[in-house]
Amino acid sequence: MITSLKRYVEDHPRFVDVMVIVQVFLVTALGSATSLRAPSGDQIPWWPGAILGGVGCVALWWRSSHPRTVVAVTAVCANTASALGYLITPLLLAPLMLALYTLAKCTDRRTARIALFGAVVLLVTTAMTSDHYGHPWALKTIGPAFWVVTPVAMGTATRLRGAYLEAAHARAEYAERTREEEARHRVAEERMRIARELHDVVAHHMALANALAGTAAHLTRTHPDQVQRILDDLAGTTSSALRELKATVGLLRQANDLDAPLEPAPGLGQLTDLTTAFAAAGLTVTVSTDGQEQPLSPGVDLTAYRIVQEALTNVAKHAAAKTAHVKLAYTHDHMTITVSDDGDAPAPAAPSPSGGFGLMGMRERAQSVGGRLQAGHRPEGGFTVTTELPIRT
């Protein structure tokens, strides 16, 4: 029932205004009819107060659109009633009190205070100077001041509560929007991470497979007895590619999928296997270490391995090089990886029309763990990729 009444009030605001104004007028008429008797025993007429109250109640119709004007009209009506000899009670002040409440709720605090001060000064001054019936001074001063202060305080509290609820609602919407944007951002980052993994796995193994296949085709004509060894290496390379591809795609599985646990992510511990694979494809890779080797966090370890893998893959694919060198330099909190070759054609530094994203992916990987990557020509020929990574993310 309460919900239905609230919905009716929201759907018929003008009808509610009419009912409120009628009730305020009845209260004002009652106040004018119950005025105190004069010392001479004469009863003050009730109808002038009722007329003044009616004028103030009619003005209440516009209290939401013109709150300042309505306060002025109701204050003049109440002050006129006081000048005629009526005792200013909350019954006679009902139109002014409602107007002050609306003003305090719809406007700022400074406007409400000015209106309150003006109403108090006007009513108290008139009651003190125009009273010919000997009303008690406390009822002429403290009473009117108290009754006009109350609606202003209530209206201000209502306005502040509404502002607080609006601010809370805005904060909730902002938090919800921020959560959605953060979720989309995390999804985009995860997609980019998986795309980099797939690119590194596929590009590396396909480059090795292509090199091994070319070598096998060449040896078929020149050294047939060595073809079997190359084909065995090719089978191992494709098998390794399938395993890494399965592990990478497995990242997309649902959390409740418990089939076939994923293999551990590769790291610099598999660097020997990586260089051996390139050696089978015709690229001799040497590895050197400078400084005290330190354990890396899993994310940095995977990033370092993938950067070395991609750099060597670019050498095998794009550079006319026979040898490459990988240098790992450790400090207290950073490690530097340098991959250089002796070729005469560098890997592309930007995406090519054929879709080369090698250096871009390496740079993104380095930045994802707080590192940085530089790549460029060597003065003596060839190409160098230098990466500085933190030991711990």
Structure overview:
The protein is an alpha+beta fold and 393 residues long. The chain has 2 domains: 2-174, no CATH class; 269-393, Heat Shock Protein 90 (2-Layer Sandwich). The protein contains 11 helices and 5 strands; from the N terminus they run H-H-H-H-H-H-H-H-H-E-H-E-E-H-E-E. Strands 1-2-3-5-4 form a 5-stranded mixed β-sheet, covered by helices on one side. Helix 4 packs antiparallel against helix 5 (94-106). It starts with a helix and ends with a strand. Mean pLDDT is 80; it is low at 345-356. Residues 299-393 form the Histidine kinase/HSP90-like ATPase domain.
Helix and strand topology:
Blueprint: H1 2-11, H2 13-33, H3 47-59, H4 67-83, H5 94-106, H6 109-129, H7 137-222, H8 227-249, H9 271-280, E1 284-290, H10 298-318, E2 323-330, E3 334-341, H11 358-368, E4 372-377, E5 383-390
Parallel strand pairs: 1-2
Antiparallel strand pairs: 2-3, 3-5, 4-5
Strand order, sheet with most strands? 1-2-3-5-4
Query: Could you list the spans in which at least 5 consecutive residues all have pLDDT below 50?
Result: 345-356
Strand composition percent: 5-15%
Q: How many helices does DSSP assign?
A: 11
**Termini gap:** 60 Å
**Radius of gyration, rounded?**
44 Å
In total, the number of strands is 5
Give helix and strand order, one letter per element, not per position: HHHHHHHHHEHEEHEE
Largest sheet: 5 strands, mixed
The gross shape turns out to be rod-shaped
